[in-house]
Predict the 3D structure of the following.
Amino acid sequence: MSRRHFCGRTEQVTTTLLQRIASGDQTAVASCIDSYSGLVWSLARRFLANEADAEETVQEIFLELWEKADRYDASVAAEVTFVSMIARRRLIDRRRKLANEPVAEPLDETEHSLSEETQDLLETNSELERVVDVIRTFKPEQQEVINMSSWLGMSHGAIAEQTGIPLGTVKSYVARGLSTIREVLGEQRLAGKAPS
């Protein structure tokens, strides 16, 4: 937390863990692990069947977070969103490498959050920003559900229990929201490839 002074008044400016890591603050590394190890491990257990593979990939995820900490832009997305995106990309890469071996799938295939197809589209911060922009067009209740499902990896049932939103409505919000995101990203990607 830093302070800025404007015309006699002080404004507090919050510095995120990744911003602190990018600036060389070694104490932020341990804090980042404490804050996000539960989320990363939860995602790893859902994506990978083998504990050794999961453990190795979790280490790779945190190493990638340190290396890319300077790319995090708080104006584009929440820090937890950035961490989740890095984790999911790395886990999807590992699953593809293990494609010829038995791989545990999530318990309910209908509860996939962002599909691998959509994850492939999210290759740059600009594309992540587009996703955030699309989500912002949803009504607040749907935004909350989409964020809990896509970025935090929560099941539909857990979201319904935590928010009090009926399970059927949660499933509908997720299905419609992710469909809209995929359509927008696909259209923008195609537009970007169109000859000028």
